[in-house]
């Protein structure tokens, strides 16, 4: 093969193979399976799983409701705490949250399948009822602007609408849903679930979505503060970390999040070009997601290279195993040294091996090369504070993200924030939902205070 | 392998596991399959007069399930055999001839007139069956016609019919008792007076097992209506065990052979019945749930158990626990036990804590130094055993008797003296000297 023709091609697989590879990774439980699994729950006192859930869903109660043939009541228990309980049931790293805390994990190393049971209940309600189960309180006449229609924004908007406030969501993209729509791996939420869930959340009424409106570009915080009674910032992370190497902008080098977004929006996966040999730099969920999806698109060799050891990877052990069983190779303790370039495009990378020395990561000087026609950067996303230009006062940051207090109030009066753009917990869908709900309750208290 | 051979009122079988009179023993086909799988004997499904009864052609059973649909209790509205008497008798004769080492007892239910009993006994004797069992138990259907439980609920009838049967037959007579009565000792004593060789119990418990809450009718529902039926299966075992023990320790009936019936599913259940006085056991629901093959575990399990305890005959088990069944008033009120949680086995589900906290004695912690930790507070623990029962881990919580020192709950020193309610100062009827439970004989 002449070196000038990179091995990047669409349609590497048959339509049936694409369908199989991107099908539901965790098929839902049927009723029998759900009842048998629900019977394993011990209905613990002050249950550890609830404490481990960022949205504090009453897990023993919702499982008991499944057991008594009350799946609708079960779903209401879930949605009361987490209106995006359907997506969280699909994408939560339960193995490091509720299921890790399950006493049956301690008892026999096999936790109750809480995530799948949550999906059983929420799917049942969404399929049988269609609409979300809550009613709006009488209108308060108060108006709240929500920036970003991702998990944090949707959660905040729904809770505010429930309390009778009128909400306008400003979303920079064509569709609401945020990373649920553009970010997570396709096989975790097939059948356009992200949009179905957006419709479900919005069915409460009182929420308007303005698409294609980005803060700092189309609207400013100053204007919003003037025309709304409160503002919630939930716009996520717009920036992507760079490798810090020369020629990073050359063809063949891409941000993992952009490629995943393209994949998620592709009408036909067969139209998406993918390389034969791919290198992914990073160690988090995004690295796993882009690697596994590339492999499932038909890439021959996909290698994740992470600069630290396996135990330091941001991706859960479960996700690492998923990568391994999908045929992805993970190499630890190696950092990018240089991009190899030929004819103006990337043909591979050079890595330097690393070692932990007195708690610090150092290069050993030993290098190795990996050939690749595509290199994905998955080394983290960052908050871009520039979007907040126009704020009356500069907003306080904490470790590069918006600083908030326990109620998710920012340093600017009348402005709350949550989700990935705020300095709260982990960057997880479920954490964003918790932020949105907590902020909405705080906003509600502020707006209704005598 | 221990010797499981059983001799129950002269009826020999290779093991003490019989199938009870019920659908599994309605025809030669089923009985032969049971014998092939190793059952020691059967009580043939109840014969009646010709023309035979008819059964409903809709649902005859209803059930209570655990949450993962393990069958815990079964209820039925099936009547006695609906096959012609002659066919049953021919099959009984053939099966007994083909399986001479197995026990074959025939269950009977005919109207309460002497000639009916005399007539059918002669026909059964002809088959060379090992004995008869008088069905005074079925609480549904037949009882509306003055048979089954309608007889078993009147001790005088029980005695009368038993006497007829002993007069008109040389076969051993087992009287099957209904539990649908306030004091099971009364019909047992009546059977004994009538000359019964043994009693068997329990027959099924009168019941409505459930209601269809969409169509508002009892289960099982036959064309929109339901009727009370007979309840059996693991759920009835505690009721049956008590009735067996009541008869075993009654002064009048002590020593009367008992065939134990009611929810026996495993060899362990069988041992419990035998310890409380049953000479053998009869099984139905377990076989109807899992098939006949379960007897293989019952045989090996009982054998291992007997070897472990050094028992050379099943008779050595029979009645071993009867002397330890007593009245509440004779229980030792000086005995003090405290729950103890094995922290290595504890999985921290907290069920013991919430059960004790909400519904009992506030004697189990939930936290220690800010950490989830479940531990018994001896100063509050009354030794009730609830925590042991709700704990999902076997042997994680145990009851430890106190043998010395002071009970931190009451402040009283632990006494090794036996003291019961009969002399307790709080008892208005207290006697000056403690009455010790007297043995039945």
Automatic annotation (TrEMBL), chain A:
<dbReference type="GO" id="GO:0016040">
    <property type="term" value="F:glutamate synthase (NADH) activity"/>
</dbReference>
<dbReference type="Pfam" id="PF07992">
    <property type="entry name" value="Pyr_redox_2"/>
</dbReference>
<keyword id="KW-0285">Flavoprotein</keyword>
<dbReference type="InterPro" id="IPR017896">
    <property type="entry name" value="4Fe4S_Fe-S-bd"/>
</dbReference>
<dbReference type="InterPro" id="IPR009051">
    <property type="entry name" value="Helical_ferredxn"/>
</dbReference>
<comment type="function">
    <text>Involved in pyrimidine base degradation. Catalyzes physiologically the reduction of uracil to 5,6-dihydrouracil (DHU) by using NADH as a specific cosubstrate. It also catalyzes the reverse reaction and the reduction of thymine to 5,6-dihydrothymine (DHT).</text>
</comment>
<dbReference type="GO" id="GO:0004355">
    <property type="term" value="F:glutamate synthase (NADPH) activity"/>
</dbReference>
<dbReference type="InterPro" id="IPR023753">
    <property type="entry name" value="FAD/NAD-binding_dom"/>
</dbReference>
<protein>
    <recommendedName>
        <fullName>dihydrouracil dehydrogenase (NAD(+))</fullName>
        <ecNumber>1.3.1.1</ecNumber>
    </recommendedName>
</protein>
<keyword id="KW-0288">FMN</keyword>
<comment type="subunit">
    <text>Heterotetramer of 2 PreA and 2 PreT subunits.</text>
</comment>
<keyword id="KW-0560">Oxidoreductase</keyword>
<dbReference type="InterPro" id="IPR036188">
    <property type="entry name" value="FAD/NAD-bd_sf"/>
</dbReference>
<dbReference type="InterPro" id="IPR028261">
    <property type="entry name" value="DPD_II"/>
</dbReference>
<dbReference type="Pfam" id="PF14691">
    <property type="entry name" value="Fer4_20"/>
</dbReference>
<feature type="domain" description="4Fe-4S ferredoxin-type">
    <location>
        <begin position="32"/>
        <end position="62"/>
    </location>
</feature>
TrEMBL record, chain B:
<dbReference type="InterPro" id="IPR017900">
    <property type="entry name" value="4Fe4S_Fe_S_CS"/>
</dbReference>
<comment type="function">
    <text>Involved in pyrimidine base degradation. Catalyzes physiologically the reduction of uracil to 5,6-dihydrouracil (DHU) by using NADH as a specific cosubstrate. It also catalyzes the reverse reaction and the reduction of thymine to 5,6-dihydrothymine (DHT).</text>
</comment>
<keyword id="KW-0408">Iron</keyword>
<comment type="similarity">
    <text>Belongs to the dihydropyrimidine dehydrogenase family.</text>
</comment>
<feature type="domain" description="4Fe-4S ferredoxin-type">
    <location>
        <begin position="337"/>
        <end position="366"/>
    </location>
</feature>
<dbReference type="Pfam" id="PF01180">
    <property type="entry name" value="DHO_dh"/>
</dbReference>
<dbReference type="Pfam" id="PF14697">
    <property type="entry name" value="Fer4_21"/>
</dbReference>
<dbReference type="GO" id="GO:0004159">
    <property type="term" value="F:dihydropyrimidine dehydrogenase (NAD+) activity"/>
</dbReference>
<comment type="subunit">
    <text>Heterotetramer of 2 PreA and 2 PreT subunits.</text>
</comment>
<keyword id="KW-0479">Metal-binding</keyword>
<protein>
    <recommendedName>
        <fullName>dihydrouracil dehydrogenase (NAD(+))</fullName>
        <ecNumber>1.3.1.1</ecNumber>
    </recommendedName>
</protein>
<feature type="domain" description="4Fe-4S ferredoxin-type">
    <location>
        <begin position="372"/>
        <end position="402"/>
    </location>
</feature>
<keyword id="KW-0411">Iron-sulfur</keyword>
<dbReference type="InterPro" id="IPR005720">
    <property type="entry name" value="Dihydroorotate_DH_cat"/>
</dbReference>
<dbReference type="InterPro" id="IPR013785">
    <property type="entry name" value="Aldolase_TIM"/>
</dbReference>
<keyword id="KW-0560">Oxidoreductase</keyword>
<dbReference type="InterPro" id="IPR017896">
    <property type="entry name" value="4Fe4S_Fe-S-bd"/>
</dbReference>
């Amino acid at each position: 093969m002449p070196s000038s023709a990179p091995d990047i091609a669409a349609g590497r697989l048959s339509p049936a193979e694409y369908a199989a590879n991107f099908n539901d990774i965790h098929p839902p439980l049927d009723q029998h399976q759900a009842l048998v699994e629900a019977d394993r729950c011990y209905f613990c006192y002050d249950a550890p799983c609830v404490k481990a859930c960022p949205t504090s869903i009453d897990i023993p109660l919702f499982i008991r409701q499944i057991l008594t043939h009350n799946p609708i009541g079960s779903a209401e228990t879930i949605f009361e705490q987490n209106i995006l309980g359907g997506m969280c049931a699909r994408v939560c790293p339960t193995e490091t949250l509720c299921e890790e805390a399950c006493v049956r994990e301690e008892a026999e190393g096999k936790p109750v399948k809480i995530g799948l049971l949550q999906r059983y209940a929420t799917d049942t309600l969404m399929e049988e009822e269609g609409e979300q189960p809550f009613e709006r309180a009488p209108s308060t006449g108060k108006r709240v602007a929500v920036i970003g229609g991702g998990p944090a924004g949707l959660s905040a908007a729904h809770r505010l609408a429930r309390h009778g406030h009128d909400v306008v969501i400003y979303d920079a993209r064509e569709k609401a849903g945020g990373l649920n729509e553009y970010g997570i791996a396709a096989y975790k939420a097939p059948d356009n679930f992200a949009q179905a869930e957006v419709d479900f959340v919005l069915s409460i009424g009182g929420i308007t979505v303005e698409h294609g409106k980005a803060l700092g570009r189309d609207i400013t915080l100053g204007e919003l503060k003037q025309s709304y009674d409160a503002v919630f910032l939930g716009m996520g992370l717009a920036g992507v970390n760079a490798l810090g190497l020369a020629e990073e902008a050359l063809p063949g080098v891409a941000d993992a999040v952009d490629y995943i977004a393209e994949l998620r929006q592709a009408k036909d996966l067969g139209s998406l070009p993918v390389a034969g040999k791919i290198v992914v730099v990073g160690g988090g969920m995004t690295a796993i997601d882009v690697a596994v999806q590339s492999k499932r698109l038909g890439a021959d060799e996909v290698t994740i290279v992470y600069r630290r050891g396996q135990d330091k990877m941001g991706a859960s052990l479960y996700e690492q195993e998923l990568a391994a069983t999908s045929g992805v190779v993970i190499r630890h303790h190696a950092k990018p040294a240089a991009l190899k370039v030929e004819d103006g495009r990337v043909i591979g990378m050079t890595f330097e091996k690393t070692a932990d020395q007195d708690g610090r990561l150092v290069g050993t000087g030993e290098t190795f090369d990996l050939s690749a026609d595509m290199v994905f950067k998955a080394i983290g996303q960052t908050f871009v504070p520039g979007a907040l230009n126009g704020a009356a006062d500069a907003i306080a940051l904490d470790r590069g993200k918006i600083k908030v207090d326990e109620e998710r109030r920012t340093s600017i009066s009348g402005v709350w924030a949550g989700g990935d753009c705020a300095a709260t917990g982990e960057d997880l869908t479920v954490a964003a939902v918790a932020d949105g709900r907590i902020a909405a309750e705080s906003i509600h208290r502020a707006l209704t205070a005598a | 392998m221990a010797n499981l051979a059983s001799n129950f009122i002269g009826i020999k079988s290779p093991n003490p596991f019989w199938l009870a009179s019920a659908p599994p023993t309605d025809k030669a086909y089923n009985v032969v399959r049971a014998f092939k799988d190793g059952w020691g004997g059967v009580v043939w499904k109840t014969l009646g007069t010709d023309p035979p009864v008819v059964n409903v052609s809709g649902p005859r059973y209803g059930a209570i399930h655990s949450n993962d649909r393990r069958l815990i209790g079964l209820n039925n509205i099936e009547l006695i055999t609906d096959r012609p008497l002659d066919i049953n008798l021919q099959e009984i004769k053939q099966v007994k001839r083909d399986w001479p080492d197995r026990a074959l007892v025939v269950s009977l239910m005919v109207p309460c007139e002497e000639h009916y009993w005399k007539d059918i006994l002669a026909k059964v004797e002809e088959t060379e069956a090992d004995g008869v069992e008088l069905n005074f138990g079925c609480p549904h259907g037949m009882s509306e016609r003055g048979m089954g439980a309608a007889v078993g609920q009147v001790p005088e009838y029980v005695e009368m019919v038993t006497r007829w049967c002993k007069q008109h037959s040389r076969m051993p007579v087992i009287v099957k008792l209904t539990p649908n009565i306030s004091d099971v000792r009364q019909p047992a004593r009546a059977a004994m007076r009538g000359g019964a060789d043994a009693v068997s119990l329990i027959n099924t418990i009168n019941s409505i097992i459930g209601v269809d809450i969409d169509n508002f009718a009892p289960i099982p529902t036959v064309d929109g209506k339901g009727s009370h039926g007979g309840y059996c299966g693991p759920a009835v075992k505690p009721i049956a065990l008590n009735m067996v023990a009541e008869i075993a320790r009654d002064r009048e009936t002590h020593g009367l052979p008992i065939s134990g019936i009611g929810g026996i599913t495993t060899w362990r259940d069988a041992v419990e019945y035998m310890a409380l006085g049953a000479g053998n056991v009869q099984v139905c629901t377990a076989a109807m749930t899992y098939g006949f093959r379960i007897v293989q575990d019952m045989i090996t399990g009982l054998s291992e158990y007997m070897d472990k305890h050094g028992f050379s005959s099943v008779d050595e088990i029979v009645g071993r626990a009867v002397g330890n069944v007593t009245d509440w008033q004779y229980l030792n009120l000086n005995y003090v036990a405290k729950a103890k949680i094995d922290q290595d086995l504890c999985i921290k589900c907290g069920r013991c804590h919430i059960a004790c906290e909400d519904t009992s004695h506030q004697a189990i912690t939930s936290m220690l130094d800010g950490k989830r930790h479940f531990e018994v507070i001896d100063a509050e623990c009354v030794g009730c055993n609830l925590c042991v029962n709700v704990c999902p881990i076997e042997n994680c919580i145990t009851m430890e008797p106190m043998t010395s020192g002071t009970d931190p709950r009451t402040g009283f020193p632990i006494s090794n003296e036996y003291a019961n309610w009969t002399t307790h100062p709080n008892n208005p009827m207290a006697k000056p000297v403690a009455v010790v439970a007297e043995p039945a004989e």
